[in-house]
Amino acid sequence: MSPLSSGAADLSRFSINQMTVKQLSLPELADSCLELGVPGVGLWRAPVQEYGVEAAAKLLRDAGLAVTTLCRGGFFTAIDPAERAAALADNRRAIDEAATLGTDTLVLVSGGLPAGSKDLYGARERIADALTELGPYAEKHGVRLAIEPLHPMYAADRCVVSTLTQALDLAERFPAHQVGVAVDTYHIWWDDNAPAQIARAGAGGRIHTFQLADWTTPLPEGVLNGRGQIGDGSIDMREWRTYVEAAGYTGPIEVELFNDALWARDGREVLAETAARFVEHAA
Amino acid sequence: MSPLSSGAADLSRFSINQMTVKQLSLPELADSCLELGVPGVGLWRAPVQEYGVEAAAKLLRDAGLAVTTLCRGGFFTAIDPAERAAALADNRRAIDEAATLGTDTLVLVSGGLPAGSKDLYGARERIADALTELGPYAEKHGVRLAIEPLHPMYAADRCVVSTLTQALDLAERFPAHQVGVAVDTYHIWWDDNAPAQIARAGAGGRIHTFQLADWTTPLPEGVLNGRGQIGDGSIDMREWRTYVEAAGYTGPIEVELFNDALWARDGREVLAETAARFVEHAA
């Protein structure tokens, strides 16, 4: 019997993002989810492509697991026309993959400053240009795009959209069923404007996913793989869950951790721990 | 003849923060400034205390160098009463030292979350409590307190004041000659609200110092010593200088870098390079 089975009802909103346990193959991930009573998974394009998109879709469908998001499209900020065309083509493929996997949400990491550029404003406008092309394409495939504001420490090299306010300013240029936002505690927890922006997003039907990670320090070199296990850091998960639910969000809650220490451990054990932490701190 | 002497007039607003060239002793720093035509220095408490506060004051006065700021007071967020009393006492000493050094500005790094706390709001209120006590003390000594918003990546462990907006919301509870803000490009460059907040600060006479550092990636482990040399990163220094000057700021412009690569080099060479970069990118 699973150590969590007595509390299985509390996992009804839980989804495990594949990156949290990237040491597990897709079949191992599906098996572990079934064993623990985890109802959904968020997927990443590279491991899904490696396994085969159709095969992954079948595997998860047969296991009865919901695919809550696909990560990720984006990287829209190039200036060079050929690079921009390649990014758009790649994002159309990402939308196709999302549709094949049966998820309604493609998460977007919008891209940083092009080499040598210091123009955040121009980069944000190029994101809007890309969404003008991709929004209708996504709608046609039953997929919603979720602009994820990334923590300001990624503004130069990864994502010039640094706050929920900026993400909504972009998203609201488009219909909500085409473009919304990803609310991720790790990126917004420091921002005293974020609760009001969650309300704004909810009122517009634009909270397309809600993701959890905790903030732990010291940050590692490169600051990519420091997303802390739920409960280990400075973020009050229940507070943020309250904000999104007050804003009308009733969807899955994904735990997405990038963390070298977790990746070095047994993946099933990490998944069980993560589910238990979700129940303790966020359910 | 100094390589910069032909452009010495362009250094009239330049001040070198002591941490940028911490490998130099105070006498070496003073000599190098005189040689290069650098008119001002921003000081740090620890090396000044080590040299002797009175002796440092005399050294810099005799050299004709302005002390543009003293870094730093702050760390106001403790909950424990004894810790809070100790912080207040230490900040009174910092104000005394600033007055002795002849600078009108003490920069405040307000402090992070106490161990185990997740309450950013409460921590910010404790900063306000401390300023209620320290503001009048500073005024009596002819010193202004400058709340420095630190980049959101420091919110947990160093400074819960993450934006100019938050810093001004705090500062405006007090008279401007007691409490203002530090505008530092490194901490605010990503924030599209910052230009309007600089205008707000200037209108209230609350820009108490303006500091430069560039944003370079990848960030180092712990993210403390990644402040990039001017011109090496993503920040348009002239743009930010334009904002503070449009807001009425006419004071010194300090370059404050924490950077292991710069610290490993000859300090006089780094100072000359920094002055040259200031002229090239910000004068």
UniProtKB/TrEMBL annotation, chains A, B:
It comes from the Bacteria. Pfam families: AP_endonuc_2. Keywords: Isomerase. One of its GO terms (molecular function) is isomerase activity. Gene3D superfamilies: Divalent-metal-dependent TIM barrel enzymes. Residues 33-273 form the Xylose isomerase-like TIM barrel domain. PANTHER family: HYDROXYPYRUVATE ISOMERASE, XYLOSE ISOMERASE. This is Xylose isomerase. It comes from Streptomyces lacrimifluminis.
